[in-house]
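Hello Y.,

Per our agreement to keep a running log of every chain we model this quarter, I'm adding this entry. I've kept the format consistent with earlier entries: sequence first, then predicted structure.
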Amino acid sequence: MIPIGDSVRSRTFPFINLTIIALNVLVFLYELTLTTTPQLRGFSDLDQFIYNWGAIPACLVDWAGGHPDAPQRQLSFFCSQPSNVGLTPFASLFIHGGWLHLIGNMIFLWVFGDNVEDAMGHLRYAVFYVIVGLAATAAHIAVSQNDLTPAIGASGSIAGVLGAYIVLYPRATVTAILPLFLFFWLPFYIPAVFLIGLWFVLQVFSGIAGLASTDVVGAGGGVAWFAHIGGFVGGVALVRLFMLARPPPAPAAAPRRRR
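Predicted structure for the entry above:
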């Protein structure tokens, strides 16, 4: 199911949400300019960029003074830019691993982010987006402290936005499409609480299943499921704090059906 719209109409222009989308696109366009041919140490320029700015759990644990269960030689090899390590939880939120990764994340941010920004206000939304992204990275590190795979993507922050949305707009309806064939997509309306709730349940089950597999909780060849879970829980937990002294969110309108 791919969301393409919702029944909540924003009362303000979502320039923070659009700026975040634009930054993600610009960083990805920069990635496209990097070579993919292995060079120094067997890394391509793109590999080097991702390892320099992706959030690598073992590198972050080591940088914070912890003791990851990884050989020092590997830490020295993969954590080659120690000056960058402290910035990677933030920088990694704007890096994506491919067109589908980018487009999938930006669709969800486009549909749900504007309404959360409208409810919180522009500055609060910007801060909220970063904080839930950091919470997502922390959750990922908690279950994969020895992982040397860089975690990248905006999905942790977007999970936090989904968590905030479901609290703010529990009666909203989402317009979604279900791809059936190459050029045939079935449009339908679905309660947001069901769509987002189902998405979260799938993250939990996938995360639990992934604990038994070393390549699922990473981010390069797998999915950082616990980053999604941590971001979502962070969004649900923090949304009321960011709504203090704010007017109530816009009501959800009835879905518009074509005749």
